[in-house]
Design goal:
There is one protein chain. The chain is built from eleven helices and two strands. It is mainly α. The protein has one domain (6-188): Hypothetical protein, domain 2 (Endonuclease III, domain 1, Orthogonal Bundle), CATH 1.10.340.30. It has a two-stranded parallel sheet with strand order 1-2. Helix 2 (29-42) packs antiparallel against helix 7, helix 2 (29-42) crosses helix 10 and helix 9 packs across helix 10 (160-169). The chain is globular, with a radius of gyration of 16 Å.
Length: 194
């Protein structure tokens, strides 16, 4: 049996996510925006809950299209608050709309969100060498800088811990433990091809 990171707890949803997505370097703006939204909604909750509602989030938030989300009004917020398929938190819903607007400004300024966000790791995945789950930090100096800069650009729900979770999910850092079968697989294709 493959050795994998302990946090999956052999939950089929977490195992699927861990084995196929977590830590894979992302350079697609829409996917990066999706993870930014999902990580914000995850604050205070388990990642398993978010993954189980992922399809509902995709449907409710226009396929994670920032240009559509940026146009949401009070009526749409009210509608989303009635949607039992997602996390019905007004602050997080309103933050998603704000973040869509900020995301588009960043795209305009840098050419893409990808170009902007990857500068925090010098456009190359940081391959950590953790031996156990206990060693993995909740935040780092890099996530502190990212959080501060995102807030300056108008983003909400982007504290350092959320930013580090985003960095892990989007492959800016490889936080698979070294004994995990995914560690070396991620390591192989983690260098950005310019």
């Amino acid at each position: 049996m493959n050795s994998r990171c302990e946090w999956t707890w052999y939950d089929p949803v977490l195992v699927e996510y861990h084995d196929n997505e977590w830590g894979v370097p992302l350079h697609d703006d829409q996917r990066l925006f999706e993870f930014l939204i999902l990580d914000a909604f995850q604050a205070g909750l388990s990642w398993s809950i978010i993954l189980k509602k992922r399809e509902n989030f995709m449907r409710a938030f226009s396929g994670f299209d920032p240009s559509k989300i940026s146009k949401y009004n009070k009526s749409k917020v009210y509608h989303l608050l009635q949607d039992s398929g997602i996390i019905r938190n007004r602050l997080k819903i309103e933050a998603t709309i704000t973040n869509a607007k900020s995301f588009m400004k960043v795209q305009k300024e840098f050419g893409s969100f990808d170009e902007y966000i990857w500068k925090f790791v010098s456009h190359k995945t940081i391959n950590n060498r953790w031996k156990s789950l206990k060693e993995i930090p909740a935040k780092t100096e890099g996530s502190d800088l990212m959080s501060k800069d995102l807030k300056k650009k108008g983003f909400k729900f982007v504290g350092s811990t959320i930013c580090y979770a985003f960095m892990q999910a989007a492959g800016l850092v490889n936080d698979h433990v070294v004994k995990c079968f995914r560690y070396n697989e991620i390591n192989k294709y983690s260098i950005r091809k310019k």
